[in-house]
Amino acid sequence: MTRYVIIGAGAVGGTIGGALARTGQDVLLVARGRHAEVMREDGLTLRTPDGAFTVHPPVITDPAEADLTVDDVLVLTVKTHQAVDVLPVWADLPVWDAGTVVGTAGERLPIITALNGVVSEDLASRWFRTVLGCCVWLPAIHLEPGEVIVRSAPVLGMLHIGPVPLGPAPAALTALQQPWTDSGIRVALPADVMPWKYRKLISNLGNGLQAVLGDDHPALAELTARAEVEAREVLAAAGIELVDEDEHTAARADSLTPRPVPGEPERLGGSSWQSLARGTGSIETDYLNGEIVRIAHRLGREAPVDETVARMCRRAATIGAAPGELAGQLLDALGVGS
User: Fold this and answer.
1) Which end of the chain has a smaller Cβ tally under 10 Å, C or N?
2) 198-333 fold
3) The Ketopantoate reductase C-terminal domain covers which part of the protein (predicted)?
């Protein structure tokens, strides 16, 4: 039986791992700190619009404890800025088959890159031969140890997964589509996943604005629109393909049904907001807004809105600012009245 090793069991990884464990799939969660301790002691609780459930899959904190075999599939769900530290550690772990080491994880195992942004596939390819890019639509929040809040049900999340570079889907990928979908994690297998990931990148540009402004600031929608317009111009100039807008809208509408979670506010922040709310000291914005800036600079262009957002997010994370605390500074930097 295939085992799914969830590397980073936070909001996204916890939702995927929890959903799979609930339906009897073999899951190993990899986490750290108090979150790992609580999951080991009391299990992982997923709270959804349809109610809560708790699962008790095994949890490790040290990759060396994984005891990888040829039946494993790795699912990378850390933040993008953490991936470069995580990937080589996992790639060099031994893989066992019938009591014999037959190679390393980088040589023998597929890795699914379920991260925001568009660079994790290239990063993973430095260490892994089989990289499965993944576009993640999954409205989840992880703030408390041992708990993930998922704001969609009965489908908890929508994943588009495909090999990078382009090629036939490996057997491990086609084999997971039905059991994952049955668990509440709907999986689609497009011929090319990267146009989906670039379109998702545009949708993620508001994450940093939400984090710095707060999730209900009156300027949030206007500034998000400015960042997105800027990004579309840069991506078009670079000749980067986006999935057809109608196809993108239809896929989301067919899959996700966001609803309030009992006992929680109707509005809760996204991944970058959660980083500031938890005081992690880091944030992934350099691989979201910062990716637009990188592409712009490569073309000899500027992307001032996205550059400003990325810079302010770095500052907020570095000084430990709470969501909304630096709103005035961001508005001043963007020339918007508070």
Assistant:
1) N
2) N-(1-d-carboxylethyl)-l-norvaline Dehydrogenase; domain 2 (1.10.1040)
3) 192-314
